[in-house]
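This is your field. Have a critical look at both lines of this record:
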Amino acid sequence: MAAFRLFLFFFFLLFYLQPSRSHESCHPGCDLLVPIHFPFQMMSNPPENRCGYDGFTVTCKNETRNILTFPFSGDFVIDSISYFSQRISITDPCNCIARRLLQGFNYSDTPFQPLDTRNFTFLNCTSDAPVFQSPGEVSPIPCLSSESHSFVALPTERVGASNTSSCTEVVTFMHPSLDDSIKDSILLTWKEPDCGRCESDGGFCQYKYDTSSEVSCFTPFDY
């Protein structure tokens, strides 16, 4: 009886506590310039492969673009991912990130948060408005502008110092940005799982065991 129990004990160790090898069968994504791996995972991967972390599921569009979907804001194209610094840059599939921000960018119920935020004011101006001659490289937002009217976004603290005659204030909101202007992408970060140090040391994160929710750092030598 004791020998049988000992057999069961070692069987458990060998079967349940073996390092996960799920990363070996995980789809790398549909954009070769933005490889997808843990904590991100492609939706096409079978759940039993356990390729990624909750909230990091990616889909393909036209077989060439990796798409990240936000529950309350829709689809965004993944422009770049830094696994070292745990940052992701996303952009609008229709190349008008300003319109998406005006519609309201909501990252609730996701593992992501802005790297930094700043209050911006959107202005609707005539195309020859004095604000475009103001210092600070103010320029229209092309995808929202026409021949007669131009949209511009200014850091709210600069509005009072700029000549905004011939402009109408549209809305002021907090934008996830470090820059003085609305750029083409939004920079976000994530805290969990914390794999930045592992990646910078040449390793990769994965579930520690095939049957565990614990994440650990591995190197190619672990296999």
In short: Confidence is low (pLDDT under 50) at residues 4-18. The helical segments are 2-16, 97-103, 156-159, 196-200. The CA atoms of residues 1 and 7 lie 10 Å apart. Residues 19-114+186-223 form one domain.
